[in-house]
Write a structure and sequence with these properties.
The chain is an alpha/beta fold. It contains 11 helices and 13 strands. The longest helix is centred in the middle third of the chain and has 15 residues.
Length: about 300
């Protein structure tokens, strides 16, 4: 059976300036999946990318990329990777097409059919009509899309995206997300470093949560949320009901905020029926809201701080 995991980190540690930037990290990354590498600034996301691409050598542990060592086999490993950095690093005076052509000349083994490839990339990222225009005239979203296009020009087996929608408007953000989803279908390993929860929610098949270089959790988003706790039902009442009365009738109250009562629930239909039947006898119900536990909630519970702290 084919080995699906293309990247393996085993007990990897890396110190920079005396600080553990990656601390005993063990994780594997499979083809055909999008991984959200999530954590606040300083969590170790950039160091992770630098270890994976062979820029840094680990202090401890082992890293394997398609069976290769990223430091010893630097050129071979880099040939497998497409990278769209946080700073788009495009040449502003060159056109979109010339930026891609320059990248192709530097990194592609063969220039055969390169013009067709570039035209296909520009079409994919919806920049065909601006192909010959200097990049300095592009919006932030257009530059991000071109940067991703450049990263996939070599048809890499691994795609690394560092904050791919940073500073991008909502419309461009959703376009970029759709491109990334489409690339996954080509059996590519995609790792997206982000601290934007909507991005992680939309894109990720699996999550790796980092804090101060340590992996604090990994798995599917739904599984991580389930380990944190229950969903909630929030009932907004017309009248304030005494707390004593509420606590005497319900064992699953999470929080009371003036006229709002928040209930934990494992079975929304069953619990909602019981809550509404009881509360409707003491006050008119003005609004009902359901919420699943968020990744922010999970991170806060694990570390005592929010992802954007």
């Amino acid at each position: 059976m084919e080995e699906r995991a293309l990247i393996h980190f085993k007990n990897v540690s890396k110190k920079l300036g005396g600080i553990n930037r990656i601390d005993d990290l063990t994780a594997s990354f499979e083809k055909g999946k999008v991984y959200g590498l999530i954590g606040p600034n300083g969590a170790g996301k950039t160091t992770f990318f630098n270890l994976l691409t062979g820029i840094y050598k680990s202090d401890k542990g082992k890293i394997s990329v398609a069976g290769l060592d990223p430091v010893r086999d630097y050129k071979k490993v880099r040939s497998l990777i497409g990278f769209a950095p946080q700073d788009t690093a495009l040449y502003p005076e060159l056109s979109a097409k010339d930026n891609l052509m320059y990248h192709a000349a530097l990194y592609l083994d063969s220039m055969k059919n390169v013009k067709d490839k570039i035209n296909s990339i520009l079409e994919l990222v919806e920049l065909s009509n601006r192909a010959n225009e200097p990049v300095k005239n592009f919006s932030g979203g257009m530059k991000r899309r071109l940067s991703i296009g450049r990263a996939i020009l070599s048809e890499p087996e691994i795609l690394l995206l560092d904050e791919p929608t940073l500073g991008v408007d909502v419309q461009s953000t959703h376009r970029i997300w759709e491109y990334i989803k489409g690339i996954r279908e080509k059996d590519t390993v995609i790792i997206v470093a982000t601290n934007v929860m909507a991005e992680a929610d939309f894109l990720s098949d699996e999550i790796v949560l980092l804090d101060r270089g340590k992996k604090i959790a990994d798995g599917s988003l739904d599984d991580l949320k389930k380990t944190f706790g229950d969903s909630t039902i929030t009932i907004c009442l017309k009248d304030k009901v005494p707390n004593e009365l509420l606590f005497s009738k319900f064992k699953n109250i999470r929080e009371i905020r003036d006229k709002e009562v928040v209930f934990n629930t494992k079975n929304i239909v069953k619990d909602l029926t019981a809550v509404v039947d009881t509360l409707s006898n003491v006050s008119e119900i003005e609004n009902i809201k359901f919420e699943k536990p968020s990744l922010d909630d999970f991170f806060l519970a694990k570390t005592g701080k929010k992802l954007r702290d």
